[in-house]
What does this fold into?
Amino acid sequence: MANRLSTAWRRYPPVDVQLRDSLLPKSDVITKGEWRTRAASFPTPSVSENRAVVEHLHRYLATRLPQILVGYHALGDEVDLEPLRQRLPGWRWLLTRVSSDDSSLLTLHDWGGPMERHRLGMTQPVEDTPEVDPIHVEVILAPGLLFTADGRRLGRGGGHYDLLLARLPLGVERIGVTTEARVVPELPAEEHDIPMTAIVTESGVQGV
It folds into this structure.
């Protein structure tokens, strides 16, 4: 995979490492809950960072035949993928949905149908939207609070994406979407965690 990745990795000005490191927990043993608390203080993506992430993703994906891709509607601390969706019109874009009983199971639905706002804040397809079998997915663009360069991802604590990732085909590309400020040196890993196969930031796409 490495020869297909963007050569622009690390070409943008480096993130303010001193600022980022000042936000990192100082304990040798750091729980996921502590990381989530600290992540709330990390900077949100700027307009220029969001634009750069979208540009790198477009360059990485646009040379392929259209595929089936899972995206997301961004929350305030996540990279907005809508500009990328508009630039890949031939692709089949899917969105996730949390069931009405708030179970950890995410279902997949075509992007573009009726939407509703979940009580946790995300916009998602309405309940009666037809489901898409995860077996058809070829690429997933996964948001997260924090990532590591070796592909670990910290979500919001519901376990939704962990269960979804486990149901995807073995060969699916799992691309973590974030900014340099949210790539940290270390995150705790559990047995059920499934790592990303690549991370994209404003610096480029990096395989792991």
